UniProtKB/TrEMBL annotation:
This is histidine kinase. Its EC number is 2.7.13.3. It comes from Saccharomonospora marina XMU15. SUPFAM superfamilies: ATPase domain of HSP90 chaperone/DNA topoisomerase II/histidine kinase. Keywords: ATP-binding, Kinase, Membrane, Nucleotide-binding, Phosphoprotein, Transferase, Transmembrane, Transmembrane helix, Two-component regulatory system. It holds the Pfam family HATPase_c. The chain crosses the membrane at residues 6-24, 36-53, 59-89, 101-117, 123-141. Residues 176-240 form the Signal transduction histidine kinase subgroup 3 dimerisation and phosphoacceptor domain. GO terms for cellular component: membrane. CDD domains: HATPase_UhpB-NarQ-NarX-like. One of its GO terms (molecular function) is protein dimerization activity.
């Protein structure tokens, strides 16, 4: 409104200067000049609506049309012609092309009729000049309106891009947190389960079988050290430390399943491992997922199947798919098949959730449930793209 007020004041000063010049040079003033108070009143009424032209463009335009007819009839100056052009421009920019066309037609009609009724000899020239001035204001309004629409579209797209970027960031953070949670669960749950089982066995055999106790304590020590190495590796990744500062520890792969089976046997779980596929040809991500699923399944069997349980892990290739199956016999105790799930690992079943997430990440599927005749069965399928 400050700029529009300045425009209105300048138009008022122009008409005032014209009126004062008519007093100094009477030949410049019309024959029947109105009194000064009427001139100033009409001039103020002519320019005052322009102050609100952005807020009420259509109302201001028609006010300019009505007051401009009186102002032009009294021949008080240039304010009516300039204000009419500003009104056309404002309607096109702030209202729209359709309303601008209607207003322009009314303005041209009013201008032609007024010039014709004044019986001026140069009415045709004035009409052409007035129409060209209005057309110029229309074109200027179209140009500015197009620029404003373009700017609004750019701002909307920028806002959309910022929203999508924020959403993508949230999704990436959630995915990374889920991945870290899976890694931490696989490392900590496996190690702690082995340590707990070995510690319980050592406490029972500490007097009757010192040799067994010594082996259990050795297993606890080795498992704890391995878990600390895994945790340090994860913490190094989270801290973003450079490779030159910290040595990199390779992730376990499906090729390490034999070593995993040996550790589980040392922990007290009889494990039979069968591998009928070239696991070195697996993609890195799928290989890690296979290892973690077998690790979590054997850990659950160690915790829940009971003393004397046997587990079997099979990994084989079926067409272009990789199949994984881990079963346990619940120490020979038959279990009635019911829809109710078996006891979940400590922590609310994060193990099964993590295994399903790992399978889903690589387009695979995972089923877990009671096995016929007792025990527990975990079966996974991966559409592996075998590396040549």
């Amino acid at each position: 409104m400050v700029g529009d007020t300045l425009i209105a004041v300048l138009l008022l000063l122009i008409d005032t200067a014209i009126f004062v010049a008519g007093g100094v040079a009477p030949q410049l003033r019309p024959d029947s000049s109105p009194p000064a108070y009427l001139v100033f009143a009409v001039d103020i009424a002519m320019v005052a609506p322009l102050v609100l032209r952005r807020k009420y463009p259509l109302l201001v335009a028609y006010a300019v049309l009505l007051i401009g007819a009186l102002h032009a009839a009294l021949e008080l100056g240039l304010a009516s012609a300039i204000a009419s052009g500003i009104a056309i421009y404002s309607v096109v920019v702030y209202v729209g092309r359709k309303s601008g066309a209607v207003y322009l037609a009314l303005m041209i009609t009013a201008t032609v009729v007024q010039l014709f009724l004044q019986h001026r000899q140069d009415w045709l020239v004035n009409t052409v000049v007035g129409v060209l001035l209005m057309a110029f204001c229309w074109v200027l309004g179209e140009f500015v309106g197009a620029r404003r629409a373009y700017q609004a579209e750019v701002e909307a797209r920028l806002h959309l891009l910022e929203t999508e970027r924020d959403q993508a960031g949230r999704i990436a953070v959630a995915a990374e947190r889920s991945r870290i949670a899976r890694e931490l669960h696989d490392v900590v749950a496996h190690a702690v389960s082995v340590i707990v089982v070995q510690a319980d066995g050592a406490s029972y055999a500490i007097r009757s079988d010192p040799g067994l106790t010594e082996r259990a304590l050795r297993t606890i020590s080795e498992t704890g050290r391995d878990a600390l190495c895994e945790l340090r590796r994860l913490l190094d990744v989270l801290r973003g430390e450079s490779e030159s500062e910290q040595p990199r520890v390779p992730q376990p792969t499906a090729a390490d399943l034999a070593e995993l089976a040996e550790r589980m046997r040392a922990a007290g779980l009889a494990v039979k491992l069968t591998v009928d596929a070239d696991l070195t040809a697996l993609p890195t991500g799928v290989s890690l997922a296979v290892y973690r699923i077998v690790q979590e399944s054997l850990t659950n069997a160690l915790k829940h199947a009971g003393t004397g349980a046997h587990a079997e892990a099979r990994v084989w290739r079926e067409g272009d798919d990789l199949r994984v199956c881990v079963t346990d016999d619940a120490a020979g105790r038959a279990r009635q098949l019911t829809p109710a799930p078996p006891p979940e690992p400590a922590g609310g079943g994060n193990g099964l959730i993590g295994m399903r997430e790992r399978a889903n990440v690589y387009g695979g599927t995972l089923d877990a449930g009671p096995a016929p005749g007792g025990g527990w069965r975990v079966a996974a399928r991966f559409p592996a793209r075998w590396q040549r």
